[in-house]
Amino acid sequence: MQEERSLPTQPQVRITVSDDKLHAFLHIDHADDASVCTLDQLLSLLQEQRVVYGIDYAKLQEISRNPSQFLHAPTVVATGDRATDGIDGKVESVINLNADQRKPLELEDGRVDFKEVISLNNVRKGQLIARIIPPTEGTPGKTVTGEVLMAKPGKEARFHAGKNIVFDPEQQAYYAAIDGMVTKTDKDKINVFPIYEVNGDVDFSIGNIDFVGSVVIRGTVRSGFRIRAEGDVRVTGAIEAAEIEAGGSIHIGAGILGHNKGLVRAGKTVKSSFIQDANVEAGEDIVVSQSIMHSSVRAGRDVICQGLKGLIVGGVIQAGEKVIARTIGNTMSTATTIEVGVRPELRNELQELRSRLKSITEHVDKTDKALTLLNHLASIGKLSDDKAAMRVKLNHTKKQAVDEMELIKERILEIERTLEDAGNAKIVATSTVYAGTKMIIGRYTKYIKDTVAHVQFYISEGDISMAPHV
Predict the structure, then answer these.
(1) 3 vs 8: CA distance, rounded Å
(2) Helix (H) or strand (E) holding 116
(3) What distance in Å separates the CA atoms of residue 242 and residue 230, rounded to the nearest whole number?
(4) Domain ends where: 34, 52, 79?
(5) Residues 109 and 173 in one domain
(6) What residues have CB less than 8 Å from 376, skipping those under 6 apart?
(7) Buried b (16+ CB within 10 A) or exposed e, 172-211
(8) Cα 297 to the center of its chain, rounded Å
């Protein structure tokens, strides 16, 4: 503390300033009840010590009126302002990359789904990843002697942007440049990757996968698990009785062994070494190098099975345009159905419509019989109130059913016209077609009774014709 001279008159007063110059203290070393000093005298004393800021005028007034009350105890008569350092900037992440993403999903009823053990940070192109909260400059301070105390500005936040992350300087925000998965890599870099890879099997250690990009499995997809990808799915191993759905194509290295369960569905193409006891659908082609056995296979365009074995036997094969294989059927005449010339979903819709039409027709027949009886009771004056209400209800139900039947018939006719247009559809066997095979092209059907070799089937003059395949 720095000490100055006392006032030449009673009371004896001096001023000290703290080392940090944020406080000025007034000391009264001697005073009695008769001692007096004016506010101007006190202000003059402060000025001598260069105290010009943060002066407590009310306190000085109080001291000047009764100095003896402040005898021997230092009194704060001026207070400066401390500098307030700036707040560091920060990254406000929308996605939590530090959460435990490998734990089973707890259901509402308390049970645990052990197949839902991983949560992928899926993002869409243009989706917000993180915002940058800028640092503040801080607020300068001031000493009681009027000197400015500089504040330390906050530190800039650092976001380590990796691949497929874009920055908008106006919004001070980072966005995904593509659809994909947000992933943290070395040195805390944040990336968006379009492919999710599993180095092993899809089993309880991985669980079900739902991803906006493409998925690569370097192993086998085990029974009971599910993969959904908006891109492609590539499996180096096999697919068991699992559900695989891809917006793009699905490539399987070791084949599909479905055990008559599960489903493999691609928006584009399915490629596999073999398909056995499985349900497989593709918006475009299904290409198999070895065999398709006892399976339900539906392709929007072609089914091609032309490897060294190239065998199709058992099940139902449906293709919008053509089916090409080395061998169709076997020596045991295993029932094998090949359908071409219409998109499989239309043919399946036709079957459902016909089944629905049959059901409604049967229902209308029963309604007509009930109405006949009620109309007879009405004609002889024996229709009770409840039966009269029933007759009204049945007439209404019948009208709704008849209207629905008309709509179904129109749709059936529309699909049948499509079936007529199967001029480019064909079925090709480069080696052998065995007896027991059923060929359907458009609306026409042909049963193969005798084994034939190197043959193709097509529509000619309103029927299925057969010609040598060269």
Answers:
(1) 15
(2) none
(3) 17
(4) 79
(5) yes
(6) none
(7) bbbbbebbbbbbeeeeeebbbbeebebeebbbeebbbbbb
(8) 28
pLDDT digits (tens, 9 = 90+) for 359-373: 999 998 999 888 898
Distance from C-alpha of 222 to C-alpha of 62, rounded to nearest angstrom = 88
Q: Domain for residue 245, yes or no?
A: no
| Residue 206, CA distances (Å) to 101, 158, 229, 244, 256 in order | 10, 32, 15, 15, 20
For residues 109 and 166, state if they share a domain: yes
Q: Let me know whether 25 and 109 are in one domain.
A: no
Looking at the fold, whether 94 and 74 belong to one and the same domain comes out as no
Judged against a pLDDT cut of 80, whether residue 344 lies above it is answered with: no
Are both 46 and 132 inside the same structural domain? no
What span, in angstroms and rounded, lies between the C-alpha atoms of 276 and 292? 6
The answer to the question of residue 467 being in a domain is no
310: nearest Cα among 324, 331, 294, 295? 324
Q: Any idea of the CA torsion for 139, 142, 147, 148, to the nearest 10 degrees?
A: 0
Domain count, the chain: 3
Nearest to 266 by CA among 286, 287, 285, 281: 281
Whether residue 381 lies inside any domain: the answer is: yes
Domain that holds residue 66: 12-79
Whole-number pLDDT of residue 119: 62
Q: What is the mean pLDDT of residues 121-147?
A: 92
Q: Using the Cα atoms of residue 32, residue 37, residue 43 and residue 48 in order, give the sign of their dihedral.
A: negative
Q: Is the same domain home to 72 and 100?
A: no
Which residues have C-beta within 8 Å of that of residue 315, sequence separation ≥ 6? 292, 293, 294, 295, 296, 297, 336, 337
User: In whole angstroms, what is the distance from residue 396 CA to residue 400 CA?
Assistant: 6
CB burial of 271-294 (b: ≥16 within 10 Å; e: otherwise) equals bbbbbbbbbbbbbbbbbbbbbbbb
Residue 464: pLDDT band (50, 70, 90) is confident
158 and 74 within one domain: no
Phi, psi angle pair for 337, to nearest 5°: -115, 130
> Mean pLDDT across the chain, nearest whole number?
86
Using alpha carbons, select from 55, 60, 3, 56 the residue that is nearest to residue 29: 3
Note whether 27 and 109 are same-domain residues. no
Tell me the backbone φ, ψ of residue 437, rounded to 5 degrees.
-90, 140
